[in-house]
């Protein structure tokens, strides 16, 4: 069991390249509040739509979350927002660079919808 925080209904979703700092800042604020309300034994994670895997990893590290859900990790796909490129290499290198290897990455192998 665990809690997944997601910017569901923040529509229309923006492609990762168009995500502004306001999305990351709001998600960080929300994650901080949710994490503070949960007992420490309940894992909490984040997904930032659409394809904001690096952003989710940064917020998760900053807010002491345990995992992210990564969209488009292995395979690229076409979504409503455009091309979501595979991000495995980039994301795992970034995770190491920000010392977030304790943040688990749960992935969608294929597109979830």
Automatic annotation (TrEMBL):
Mind telling me which InterPro entries this protein's record contains? BtpA
Q: Which branch of life, at top level? A: Eukaryota
Pfam families the record matches: BtpA
What name appears for this protein in its UniProt entry?
A: Uncharacterized protein
């Amino acid at each position: 069991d665990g809690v997944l925080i997601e910017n569901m209904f923040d529509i229309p979703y923006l492609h990762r390249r168009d995500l502004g700092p306001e999305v990351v800042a709001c998600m960080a604020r929300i994650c901080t509040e949710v994490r503070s309300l949960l007992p420490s034994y309940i894992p909490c994670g984040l997904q930032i739509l659409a394809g904001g895997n690096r952003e989710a990893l940064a917020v998760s590290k900053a807010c002491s979350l345990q995992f992210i859900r990564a969209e488009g990790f292995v395979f690229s796909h076409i979504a409503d927002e455009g091309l979501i490129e595979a991000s495995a290499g980039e994301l795992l290198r970034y995770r190491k660079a920000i010392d977030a290897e304790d943040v688990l990455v749960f992935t969608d192998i294929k597109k979830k919808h």
